[in-house]
Amino acid sequence: MELSVVLLLAVLTGLLLLLARGHPKAHGHLPPGPRPLAFLGNILQMDRRGLLKSFLRLREKYGDVFTVYLGPRPVVMLCGIEAIREALVDQAEAFSGRGRVSTVERIFQGHGVIFANGERWKLLRRFSLATMKNFGMGKRSIEERIQEECQCVVEELRKTQGESPENGYAGEEDLTAPSLLQVFELFYNFLKYFPGTHKQIYKNVQEIIAFIEDAVEKHRETLDPSTPRDFIDAYLIRMDKEKSDPNSEFHHRNLICTVLSLFFAGTETTSSTLRYGFQLMLKYPHVTERVHKEIDQVIGPHRLPSLDDRAKMPYTDAVIYEIQRFSDLFPIGAPHMVTKDTHFRGYFMPKVRPAGLPHFARVGILGSLNLCT
């Protein structure tokens, strides 16, 4: 019994010493930041209302470039447009690596255009951009498709008969909010074996993947290589061209993960912005009234809006910009990693080694003013 008590005291003493010492020093000369605790990192110093508030507070103390330990992992935060431009534009190659997002790592496993790295990322990104441009992205030719989607949205709104289509304020739940997912991201290697929200996310995404798999199969059955109809057709054609190359990145797994990535990127950003817009129009009826008046004057009730109308509707255009500024959908950008040992603003960031040091993330320009106040 006495031996057990001694062992317990020894373990507790060792743990306290580790906590007092903090996290072992990372390789390289990383930017300054709050002193971390062993295993926990800086989590006890984070704001309970979300990581974003904590990062903004640390920015005031340490400047636009600082280091925080999210659990045992060091993360270099880049804040503000100048620091982000220096990293992602001036040193684009060095900062082009994609960091790990534990919640979806099991799903993508480094495949698809968003979560890939190296040559795979370059090939898929180049192909995706070229293909989407061929189908009208950023061109006038896509206007008709947007108008078709707008008609569908209007029809769905009419079905609500004036009732709010969703309860609660748009954007109440996100990754910047305090949640179990944050804890899961910090301690993934331990918590992945336990039940939680991440299990439900995996299940939900599997349903979307099944939908995409079915769509790919239907596209394959009706494929005409001379007249590709969409992104999936174009990818299948490229797959057939490179099917004899065992090292080709144009295979089925990358197709599914790329379509899944584009699906999330295209639908979530658009739908969230619309929800913010609807909620803000309800909150500020005097703004809604002026927008409605301008729409009646320029477009009228009998035709769809077009890009040509934009120059004639300065107030509506300004309101749309303000909605996008206010909503700030991704204030904390996707995590990146340096692809080689990198010097940045007098600091040294080593390439990620098997131990996982270090990631770097970015914080964009943040809006804090309310709409039209």
The CATH homologous superfamily name of the largest domain equals Cytochrome P450
Sequence of strands across the biggest β-sheet: 1-2-7-4-3
Question: What's the overall geometry?
Answer: globular
Cα gyration radius (Å): 24 Å
How would you characterize the overall build of this protein?
Keywords: Endoplasmic reticulum, Heme, Iron, Membrane, Metal-binding, Microsome, Monooxygenase, Oxidoreductase, Signal. Its main location: endoplasmic reticulum. It is found in: Endoplasmic reticulum membrane; Microsome membrane. InterPro entries: Cyt_P450 (IPR001128), Cyt_P450_E_grp-I (IPR002401), Cyt_P450_sf (IPR036396), Cytochrome_P450_fam2 (IPR050182). With about 375 residues, this protein is of the alpha+beta class. It has two domains: about 20-100 and about 335-365, no CATH class; about 105-330, Cytochrome p450 (Orthogonal Bundle). The strands form two sheets. It has a five-stranded mixed sheet. Strands 5-6 form a two-stranded antiparallel sheet. A hairpin with a 2-residue loop joins strand 1 (about 65-70) and strand 2 (about 75-80). The protein contains 14 helices and seven strands. The N and C termini lie far apart (about 70 Å). Helix 4 runs parallel beside helix 10, helix 10 (about 195-220) crosses helix 12 and helix 12 (about 250-285) crosses helix 14 (about 315-325).
